[in-house]
Amino acid sequence: MSNNILTQNDIQHVDYKDVDLLKQFINPHGRIVGRGKSGLTAKQQRAVEAAIKRARFMGLLPFIQK
Amino acid sequence: MADDAVIEMNETDAPETALRIYEVGYHINPDTKEEDLDKVVSTLREAIEKTSGSFIAEGAPSLMKLTYPISLREGEKSVEYDRGYFGWIKFEAPIAAAQTIEAFLKQNKSFFRFLLFQTVREDTRAKMKAPQLREVKRTDVIKQAPRRVEEVSAPVSEEDLEKALQDITTE
User: Most CB atoms within 10 A, among A57, B65, B84, B105?
Assistant: First the structure.
């Protein structure tokens, strides 16, 4: 069983407003986790990265966390 | 060959009037009164309607804390915002409209931060499934221990008791 959260929950689109979902793809410092850890496909990883960067710009997610 | 045809079609199909789906997310100045929020949002809506855009979905602005303070220069002094009324609008508009709306948001001081990008018509919000509990098949069956039937003892006379005690001690 893969640990791909998006496939498991049948999520086709990643929205920058879904902060709780996106928080699962950042580490405690606020950095985006790599594919090795996230278990996403390349396409999904790109979508998640774009969404996280949008959320950061809008102040919904931190750029860095202490 | 087939790919060439598709590219050609797209090129001819993309004049300035071709429609695209856009989403705009914005933060309204937290000093704005709650009753004035509708007014501020309606100015944005008017700007979209002016470009012959049609609305698809909308999220009403609600006050939220930002994860980092956003500082802006307003004239001589800089202002720091640690919260804002966050809202969003998804709409369909011609390609040329995006620039117009962006220019409108830039010059409007009520929106201290905004984001405009192309998206899809479908609802993009994730609907997380409730975590399903894994069914575990039991292989070990716990057998119930046989219940002890409590003996109901009748009142014992002192003689019997002493006799029983003597039996134990003599052994």
Answer: B84
